[in-house]
Amino acid sequence: MADYDIIIKGGTIVDGLRTPRYIGDLAIKDGKVAKIGGLRKATADKVLDAAGLIVAPGFIDSHTHYDAQIQWDPYCTASGWHGVTSVIIGNCGFGFAPCSAKQEDRDRMMLSLTRNEAIPYNAMKEGMLWDWETFPDFLDSLDRIPKGVNLISYVPLSPIYSWVMGYDESKKRRPTEAELKEMCRLLEVGLDAGACGWSAQVLGPDSVQRDYDGTPMVTDLMTNEELIAFARVLGERDEGSIELAYSATGIADEISQMPESSKKLFEKLAEVSGRPVIHQAVVSYDHDANQHRAKLAWLEDCVNRGLRVYGQGLTLRSGKELTFEDWNLFDDAPEWRKVTLGTVAERKAKMEDPETRAALRAEWDSGIRPSASIPEGLTVLQIEQVGRRDFEHYIGQSIQEIADKEGKHVIDALLDIVVGDNLQTELFGPSARYNAQNSAEIVNSPYSFPGASDGGAHVKFSPGGVYPTDTLTWLVRDEGVVTLEEAHYKLSYLPGFMGGFRDRGSFGRARRPT
Question: Measured between alpha carbons, how far is 34 from 352 in angstroms, rounded to an integer?
Answer without folding.
Answer: 65
